[in-house]
Specification:
- The chain is built from eight helices and ten strands.
- The protein has helices spanning 40-47, 87-91, 93-99, 105-114, 130-143, 160-176, 188-194, 226-242; strands at 2-11, 14-24, 29-33, 55-60, 63-64, 72-75, 148-152, 180-185, 197-201, 208-213.
- Strands 6-7-8-3-9-10 form a six-stranded mixed beta sheet, with helices on both faces. Strands 2-1-4-5 form a four-stranded antiparallel beta sheet, with helices on one face.
- Helix 4 packs antiparallel against helix 5 (130-143).
- Bound molecules: adenosine-5'-triphosphate.
- Residues 11, 14, 16, 34, 36-42, 204 line the site of adenosine-5'-triphosphate.
- GO terms for molecular function: ATP binding; ATP hydrolysis activity.
């Protein structure tokens, strides 16, 4: 469980994120939508302790994040792969750093296979496409068996069809390994496919404008439901107003 209480993050005198309050259960994915520059990455950085100075509190299972030894899986925009390690080594990097003893070879192989990385195992990051690198970063996060999962536009480098496949694959793996997850995206459709809750942030400094309980979460093929279109229209209308008018 991630509890975010009155979180405000500043860069010097500039406020990037303002008074965020969220409670993300162990079996929940919060999809975060917000305009460019509103502080979505800043939120991921604060939750992953890349940014350590902030106002308010972040608790993981009721312990301040700074004092917890929680395993955090992150898929960041720059993928965070080490260029001198191959795909297999990069995928196992998180667990080997955190807890070599617990590295589960069978599970690692399963995730690598599920993410279609078997044939790429001995390749190096400089010979991979953006989408392939995203899959390696995703594999690394799952292999870590994290207690919380933070994803910053993890599928942005993929074409539409591969992106849909990856969303489905991600959800399949996640459903079998549920963990509190924050998933940042620019895509309304992706938020509906992935988020149990959809959080809409304001323009900078990012504040929470709305949290939507997503009735389509967990459906096998949400895009085929007529409610999918209605919900995306509703969100689109809300965003159009919410992001253009200062509230
Ligand atoms: N290290 C930094 N120093 C000063 N300002 C920063 C720093 N990092 C980010 N910012 C500013 O903080 C604001 C929020 O940035 P952030 O990257 O969190 O936004 P974002 O919502 O993720 O944007 P995008 O959707 O474009 O990726 C922006 O105005 C950005 O310019």
């Amino acid at each position: 469980m991630i509890k975010i209480e009155s979180l405000t993050v500043k860069y010097g005198s500039f406020t990037a994120l303002s008074n965020i309050n969220l409670e993300i259960g162990d079996d929940e994915i919060y999809a975060v939508l917000g305009p460019s520059g509103c502080g979505k990455t800043t939120l991921i950085y604060a939750l992953s302790m890349i940014i350590k100075e902030f106002e308010g509190r972040v608790l993981i299972n009721d312990k301040p994040i700074k004092n917890s030894d929680v395993r955090i899986g992150t898929v960041l925009q720059n993928y965070g792969l080490l260029p001198w390690k191959n795909v297999y080594e990069n995928a196992l990097l998180g667990i080997e750093i955190k807890d070599k003893e617990k590295a589960d070879k069978l599970y690692s192989e399963y995730i690598i296979k599920e993410l279609g990385l078997e044939d790429l195992k001995y390749k190096y990051p400089n010979s991979l496409s953006g989408g392939q690198m995203q899959r390696v970063a995703l594999a690394r996060s799952f292999i870590l068996k994290p207690q919380i999962l933070l994803m910053d536009e993890p599928f942005s480098a993929l074409d539409a069809i591969t992106r849909e496949k990856m969303q489905e694959l991600f959800l399949n793996i996640w459903m079998n390994n549920k963990v509190s997850t924050v998933f940042v995206t620019h895509s309304i459709e992706e938020a509906i496919c992935i988020g149990k809750k959809i959080v809409i942030l304001s323009k900078s400094p990012g504040r929470i404008l709305k949290i939507i309980n997503n009735p389509l979460f967990g459906l096998k093929e949400p895009r085929l439901s007529s409610d999918f279109y209605n919900l995306s229209l509703e969100i689109r209308k809300f965003i159009k107003e919410g992001w253009s008018i200062e509230k």
